[in-house]
Design brief:
By secondary structure, the chain is an alpha+beta fold. It folds into two domains: about 300 residues, Extracellular Endonuclease, Chain A (3-Layer(aba) Sandwich), CATH 3.40.570; about 200 residues, no CATH class. It has ten helices and 29 strands. It has an eight-stranded antiparallel sheet. A four-stranded antiparallel sheet has the order 17-18-20-19. It has a three-stranded antiparallel sheet with strand order 23-24-25, with no helix packed on it. β26 and β27 form a beta hairpin. Pfam families: Endonuclease_NS. InterPro entries: DNA/RNA_non-sp_Endonuclease_sf, Endo_G_ENPP1-like_dom, ENDOD1, ENPP1-3/EXOG-like_nuc-like, His-Me_finger_sf, Kringle. This is Kringle domain-containing protein. GO terms for molecular function: hydrolase activity; metal ion binding; nucleic acid binding.
């Protein structure tokens, strides 16, 4: 992890805020527990040099902060989403608020500007950041509780240096501000507007480089993170997730479960005990939560994807670049992928498979929820060794019913044209089989509940038999020919060619997988529904 401190570089513009006094209370969260999910403050962050602050302004408590006196930045601020409609804001002042109670908890109960205080600069500097620490640096005063999430006096209360940490200007103004805007819109729609209450905790991970020079008193965070909880009276509608990014210009965003964030923060903060941001992780595994999270991830990814300018994508022709963007969006917004087992190989995504039962479960979930197909494939030796994942993988592909697909309903590859109507009432294309033609799916290829066979609409009101993209491995474990994955190909069983000499073999049905299934040998059905079994060795 890279550590850094604030350098004396170039002036930044001043940020204005309200005139007037506010009150804050240091030492306990008793008066601001309402900003914590289940009234429980985050655990594992409190140290001898941290101070608990109920941020009070104009006789109201607006949020809670755990402030690190030695690093002179907040460890975190906990808050809720403010009112949706905000009237105009009143006149603002030039200086941010500071907290005199950090230096004299008994004598100075009021949050105020430095000009309104009788404390000396040395007294201010002893336990917190002050305005001059930011005035001639290359860093922004980055809100933890965003001012855009609050209204009126609640918004004014966020302009306190106990709620600010030095942030890279590009990270703060581009990456983080875009994220906050998208997050606010999604929480309003997916949580508050359906009877939920959003709870948020945003934190900064201090770096630990020596800060002896006068203008290097404040720790520049290595990472900034936010944990999100939508509480709801219906436990099935609760959801939570978290994101974390490095505080630098070329930052990357991770969207992860809250329990994973707890583990990450345990290592980043180097705390002696366990970390728990939300009690019971706030329904992080609910089904409704997964659906909402998928929508939020898609919106967040779409926002950040606009800023991606990797050199490899600049070399791609526009059509391929657009296709890569589409496929990447499908993968990145899936809630069913274990990112640790996901490898980007050129423009193919590979997911490691450790047993056939896991693959089949993964295939079915992704096929139903994500418009992705987890297509079983044997990994080349070099790929398996380099990836460190498995000798068997699945390649992630967009499903064949999506626009511009080049795979027919029964599995043939299109030749000379993509799937389309091409002057007819149904979708079709010429195929690689004797220049024949085949129907194409215009909607997802799914199992008909009555017949237990795969069918899909073809665009003219009728349906046709179809094969989902699911495997390129035969029952004997041999790979299918590159242009001929497992499918029906006008037969009643699933099969594929192994070479260009018309040698073929059976494939397991997509509704069944190679396994023991209560027998002493491995086997699977090669025909639907549950017919024509074959020995197998995958």
């Amino acid at each position: 992890m890279s550590h850094q401190t604030m350098d004396w570089l170039m002036p930044l513009g001043c940020v204005l805020l309200w005139a007037g006094l506010g009150l804050a209370e240091v030492g306990s969260f008793t008066d601001c527990n309402k900003y914590f999910y289940q009234d429980a403050e985050p655990q594992g962050f409190d140290m001898a040099h941290t101070a608990k602050i109920c941020q009070r302004y104009r006789n109201l408590y607006h949020f809670a902060t755990l402030y690190d006196r030695s690093q002179r930045i907040p460890r975190w601020s906990a808050y809720t989403l403010g009112d949706e409609n905000c009237p105009g804001q009143a006149r603002k002042m030039r200086q941010w608020f500071v907290e005199p109670q950090l230096a004299h908890p008994d004598n100075f109960p009021e949050m105020m500007t430095e000009a309104e205080s009788t404390l000396s600069l040395d007294e201010w500097r002893s336990s917190q950041a002050i305005n001059e620490d930011y005035e001639d640096t290359s860093y922004d005063r980055g809100h933890l509780n965003p001012n855009t999430f609050q209204c009126n006096v609640g918004r004014t209360a966020t302009f306190t240096l106990t709620n600010a940490a030095p942030m890279n200007p590009y990270f703060s103004r581009v990456w983080w501000s875009k994220l906050e805007k998208t997050l606010k819109a999604q929480l309003t729609e997916s949580c508050r507007n359906v009877g939920g209450k959003p709870y948020l905790v945003t934190g900064a991970v201090p770096s630990d480089r020596d800060r002896n020079r006068p203008y290097n008193r404040i720790s520049v965070p290595s990472h900034v993170w936010t944990a999100v909880c939508c509480d709801h009276v219906d436990n099935n509608r609760k959801f939570s997730f978290a994101f974390i990014g490095e505080n630098k210009e070329a930052s990357s965003l991770q969207i992860i479960p809250v329990e994973q964030l707890n583990t990450e923060l345990l290592h980043l903060y180097k705390t002696p005990g366990p970390v728990e941001v939300f009690a019971d992780d706030c329904g992080s595994k609910s089904q409704k939560g997964q659906e909402v999270l998928s929508a939020i991830k898609k919106a967040l990814y779409s926002t950040f994807q606009n800023f991606i300018t990797d050199s490899y994508s600049q070399l791609l022709p526009p059509a391929k670049s657009r296709r890569l963007d589409s496929e990447t969006s499908q993968v990145m917004t899936s809630t069913n992928l274990d990112q640790k087992n996901l490898q980007l190989m050129g423009i193919r995504f590979l997911l490691g498979i450790f047993c056939m039962a896991d693959w089949h479960s993964q295939f079915e979930k992704m096929y139903k929820q994500d418009n992705l197909a987890c297509v079983l494939a044997p990994a080349a030796a070099a790929v398996a060794e380099a990836s460190g994942i498995s000798d068997t993988v699945c390649t992630l592909q967009e499903q064949k019913h999506l626009p511009n697909s080049r795979v027919t309903a029964q599995g043939w590859s299109c030749v000379g044209q993509a799937c389309g109507y091409h002057g007819y009432a149904y979708s079709w294309c010429y195929t690689s089989h004797n220049n024949d033609q085949d129907y194409c799916c215009t909607e997802k290829c799914t199992v008909n509940p009555a017949s237990k066979l795969y069918e899909c609409p073809r665009g003219d009101g009728s349906t046709t038999k179809c094969s989902p993209q699911y495997s390129t491995v035969t029952v004997s474990g041999k790979p299918c020919r590159a242009d001929h994955p497992c499918g029906l190909y006008k037969e009643n069983y699933f099969w594929c060619y192994k070479d260009y000499k018309d040698n073929w073999d059976y494939c397991c049905s997509p509704q069944h997988y190679c396994g023991y299934h209560d027998y002493p040998y491995q086997w699977c059905y090669s025909q639907d529904p549950a017919a024509s079994w074959q020995y197998c060795s995958l």
